[in-house]
């Protein structure tokens, strides 16, 4: 069936079954591949996007449930990698292989929206189901704190 | 002739003569092309209007220098460290450096011009540095020679710095002289010497990674992201039990489902040139295993259909096996010293006599399970077969290997296969096998359209190649003074070499299974006997980050600790007492103890543990500090790591790799275990195959104990091993609970 989704401010009409996970619609139908597939069961965070400003696992969100909502992917977080999270990530050279990073960045951006200055406890709780197999956790933590500073200074 | 000299001569012999890159793949200009690395890293980040001075580098008219690397980026930082080595010699302004992958097809056509194009064994720097320095130095001298000829001066008067050549009042840029330099050939004698470490200015500093900008905005292309016009998607389900076979499959039941294009059977009885043969080693690891495939217009259609495909399996010879049966078979050998399977590894002095005369005898058995790699990016490969040319995209740890597998599978000449290596969403050894590449080639060959094959996470977890199990028996005798009087160690494990490269077995022994346990052990033991026996299973084994060091340091360093406590000696002192004065382990051990504030007498519930190991040319010593509640809740407070890799290229990468290895080691020690039931893997996804999380990540402090000199050690893997000993030792210090099997989560840590 035809569904109309708004991704990064652009409207896309796609022909998919309504129970198709949003992840595959974003990646394969719309062609935005920055959102990654890691587990398909909401246990790794690689597929995280924003739906109406809140972090959501696109692998377990049905495409039909996102109709009429504003979907933001890593490609739409900023036009020029200028979001404080992206700036801090570059400053601290967080990514290693990079595969998980879109998910972390989208999750971290949503966390900063909720809490301008998250504590370590906030960070631990927010990322209970995010995995980075390269083990960039230490730098992610530090970069989130740094991003909070950058955002506060703007 | 040393290895270094061979590399240097090889560079001189081939690279200058190598001509003309090929235009490959689908080049789509994007905004990211201004970046130092293209989002499609197999494509050049520049417009390639430049002159190729040798196979490793080109100089564009605007002065941009593009440096090629033969290794694959899977997080370890080669996209930055390898170009740094060339740039150090070239004397180029680092801001003008761009990087791209070397072309495996050219490598194959051109007498292995890039020397070594696989990534593994923590070998990127230590095995390539000399010829990369030579490539940079040679280009620099040819640029100088070109300027000298133009200006009518001697080359010795020309200096080269920051891409500018000068002599007296003459100055010119590298770009101006690139064409002339490209035409200059040096004889072997004319090739310049390379810099020594004391002359480095770029190497050893902290340099920002060139690939980071692509990894914060979703533009970096991984294998899973490749999109080729007209592409179809394939989803696959393999025999749940490795080595099993499809018994029945009803393809017609799913052919009518949305988007389905075709249903295929792969492996024995289906398509595929090299198919699994249980009788043949190493075919058991490389051949296509029995599987079913659905090809569809989208991945989700393919996945849905393959999940609904009616199929029954014959489990084959591995059916019925479990962790218990595998361990029982190993223990039958391990606990029977007279068993004929034990092969001598090391026998020095009189171990039995030393133990017989000892005042105290310590005896223990240790075990470690099968592990899956858990690469963040599930396995995938995209193949397009056309008349006279095959294109292959994916995250290859060994691109020429992938190229060869595709040529073999499709029966075409290697020269007609073009691999396009993407960024890798982890490798850890899994992506060097190319079994998924062979499957994708077979599928694309049968379908006649470009196909992207993607394994689901469940297939990736249950159908990988695994870090093999190992079992260890130790017996140590201590004299009345607490000194080691005799040591006996029997190991029974599955062999990686036997399955993959049987010609590497020596006297029946697999040297990677014995890493750190044989003569390579740092400790001096007067009476020592070590044996090894192979007990294989139907489960295909594979390199797993740090290989033998992903398990041996757990057993050895825990047992050393047991002996230290039995001797009543501080665990650090017990180790230092067994190290020769001039041991390279002395400095890392002492530094890490000092930095961590080593203290073996903390109040109950707190503890420090120490361990060290050597791998891939680097020595790592580690102290873990833990707190364990009475109810057994473990908190890892901090980890200190001392590193002797000799020299460093990019200090930022050293710290990142030490942290990365701690996460791999902690996941391994605390959580990772593949359970086997009816010969098949039970854990299928991250809900049961658990990995370390953010909240469990301790502070990791990296300390350099660089010995310099001739030592150039790798850093991608070696820091994984020592934490496997340091953590259980810290837990023992805190609780009195001795962990003798991994993972730790299977044990109660409660104390009173
Ligand atoms: S892919 Fe969605 S959470 Fe892992
Ligand atoms: S950076 Fe590689 S998995 Fe996170």
Overview of the molecule:
The complex is a heterodimer of chains A (154) and B (752). With 154 residues, chain A is α+β, with helices and mostly antiparallel strands. Chain A has five helices and five strands; from the N terminus they run ββαβββαααα. A five-stranded mixed beta sheet of chain A has the order 2-1-5-3-4, with helices on both faces. In chain A, a hairpin with a 2-residue loop joins β1 and β2. The longest helix of chain A is centred in the C-terminal third of the chain and has 17 residues. Chain A is globular. With 752 residues, chain B is an alpha+beta fold. Chain B folds into three domains: 201 residues, Aldehyde oxidase/xanthine dehydrogenase, molybdopterin binding domain (Aldehyde Oxidoreductase, domain 4); 170 residues, Aldehyde oxidase/xanthine dehydrogenase, molybdopterin binding domain (Aldehyde Oxidoreductase, domain 4, 2-Layer Sandwich), CATH 3.30.365.10; 330 residues, Aldehyde Oxidoreductase, domain 4. Chain B contains 19 helices and 27 strands. Chain B has a seven-stranded mixed beta sheet. In chain B, strands 13-21-20-19-14 form a five-stranded mixed beta sheet. Chain B has a four-stranded mixed beta sheet with strand order 1-2-3-4. Chain B is globular. The N terminus of chain B is likely disordered. At the A-B interface, α1, α2, α3, α4 and α5 of A face α18 of B. The structure holds FE2/S2 (inorganic) cluster (FES) (2 copies).
């Amino acid at each position: 069936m035809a569904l109309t989704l708004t991704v990064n401010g652009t409207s896309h009409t796609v022909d998919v079954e309504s129970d198709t996970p949003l992840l595959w619609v974003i990646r394969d139908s719309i062609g935005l591949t920055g959102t990654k597939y890691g587990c398909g069961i909401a246990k790794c965070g690689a597929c995280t996007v924003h739906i109406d400003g809140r972090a959501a696992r696109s692998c377990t969100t049905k495409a039909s449930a996102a109709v009429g909502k504003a979907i933001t992917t890593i490609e739409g977080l900023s036009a020029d990698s200028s979001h404080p999270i992206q700036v801090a990530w570059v400053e601290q050279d967080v990514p290693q292989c990079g595969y998980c990073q879109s998910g972390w960045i989208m999750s971290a951006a949503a966390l900063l929206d909720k809490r301008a200055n998250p504590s370590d406890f906030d960070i631990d709780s927010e990322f209970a189901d995010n995995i980075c197999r390269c083990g960039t956790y230490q730098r992610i933590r530090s970069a989130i704190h740094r991003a909070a500073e950058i955002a506060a200074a703007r | 002739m040393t290895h270094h000299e061979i590399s240097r001569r090889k560079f001189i012999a081939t690279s200058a003569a190598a001509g003309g890159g090929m235009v490959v793949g689908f080049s789509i200009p994007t905004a990211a092309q201004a970046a130092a690395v293209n989002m499609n890293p197999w494509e050049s980040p520049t417009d390639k209007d430049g002159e190729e001075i040798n196979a490793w580098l080109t100089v564009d008219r605007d002065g941009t220098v593009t440096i090629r690397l033969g290794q694959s980026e899977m997080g370890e930082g080669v996209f930055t460290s390898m170009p740094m080595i060339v740039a150090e010699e070239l004397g180029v302004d680092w801001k003008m450096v761009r990087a791209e992958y070397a072309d495996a097809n050219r490598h194959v056509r051109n007498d292995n011009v890039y020397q070594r194009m696989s990534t593994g064994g923590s070998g990127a720097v230590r095995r390539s540095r000399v010829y990369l320095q030579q490539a940079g130095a040679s280009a620099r001298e040819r640029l100088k020679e070109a300027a000298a000829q133009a200006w009518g001066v001697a080359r010795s008067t020309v200096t080269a710095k920051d891409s500018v050549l000068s002599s007296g009042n003459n100055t010119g840029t590298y770009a101006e002289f690139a064409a002339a330099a490209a035409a200059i050939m040096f004889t072997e004698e004319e090739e310049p010497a390379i810099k020594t470490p004391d002359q480095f200015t770029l190497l050893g500093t902290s340099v920002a990674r060139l690939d980071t900008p692509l990894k914060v905005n979703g533009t970096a292309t991984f294998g899973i992201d490749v999109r080729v016009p007209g592409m179809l998607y394939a989803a696959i389900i393999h025999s749940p039990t490795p080595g099993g076979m499809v018994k029945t499959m009803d393809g017609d039941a799913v052919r009518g489902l949305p988007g389905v294009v075709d249903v295929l059977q792969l492996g024995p009885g289906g398509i595929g040139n090299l198919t699994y043969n249980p009788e043949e080693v190493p075919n058991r690891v490389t051949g296509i295993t029995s599987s079913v495939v659905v090809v569809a217009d989208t991945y989700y259609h393919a996945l849905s259909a393959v999940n609904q495909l009616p199929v029954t399996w014959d489990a084959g010879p591995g059916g019925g096996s479990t962790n218990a049966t595998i361990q029982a078979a190993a223990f039958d050998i391990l606990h029977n010293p007279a068993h004929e399977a034990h092969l001598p590894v090391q026998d020095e002095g009189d171990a039995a006599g030393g133990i017989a005369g000892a005042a105290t005898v310590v005896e223990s058995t240790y075990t470690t399970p099968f592990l899956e790699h858990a690469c963040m990016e599930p396995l995938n490969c995209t193949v397009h077969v056309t008349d006279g040319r095959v294109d292959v995209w994916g995250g290859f740890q060994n691109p020429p290997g992938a190229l060869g597998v595709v040529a073999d599978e499709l029966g075409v000449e290697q020269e007609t296969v073009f691999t396009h290596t993407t960024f890798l969403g982890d490798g850890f050894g899994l992506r060097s096998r190319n079994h998924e590449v062979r499957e994708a080639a077979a599928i694309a060959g049968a379908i006649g359209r470009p196909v992207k094959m993607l394994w689901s996470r469940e297939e990736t977890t249950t159908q990988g190649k695994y870090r093999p199990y190992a079992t260890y028996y130790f017996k140590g005798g201590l004299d009345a003074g607490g000194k080691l009087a005799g040591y006996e160690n029997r190991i029974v494990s599955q062999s990686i070499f036997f399955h993959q490269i049987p010609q590497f077995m020596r006297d029946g022994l697999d040297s990677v299974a014995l890493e750190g346990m044989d003569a390579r052990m740092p400790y001096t033991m007067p009476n020592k006997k070590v044996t090894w026996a192979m007990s294989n299973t139907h489960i295909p084994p594979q390199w797993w980050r740090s290989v033998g060091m992903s398990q041996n340091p757990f057993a050895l360093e825990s047992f050393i600790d047991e002996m230290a406590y039995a001797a009543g000696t501080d665990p650090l002192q017990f180790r230092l007492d067994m190290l020769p004065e001039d041991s390279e382990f002395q400095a890392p051990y002492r530094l890490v103890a000092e930095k961590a504030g080593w203290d073996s007498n903390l109040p109950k519930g707190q503890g420090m543990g120490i361990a060290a190991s050597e791998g891939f040319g680097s020595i790592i010593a580690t102290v873990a500090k833990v707190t364990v509640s009475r109810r057994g809740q473990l908190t890892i407070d901090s980890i200190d790591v001392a590193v002797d890799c000799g020299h460093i290229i990019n200090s930022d990468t050293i710290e990142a790799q030490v942290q990365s290895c701690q996460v791999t080691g902690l996941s391994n020690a605390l959580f990772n275990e593949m359970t086997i039931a009816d010969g098949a893997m039970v854990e299928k996804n991250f809900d049961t195959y658990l990995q370390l999380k953010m909240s469990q990540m301790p502070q990791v402090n990296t300390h350099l104990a660089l010995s310099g000199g001739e030592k150039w050690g790798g850093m991608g893997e070696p820091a994984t091993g020592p934490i496997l000993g340091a953590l259980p030792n810290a837990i023992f210090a805190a609780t009195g609970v001795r962990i003798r099997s991994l993972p730790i989560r299977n044990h109660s840590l409660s104390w009173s």
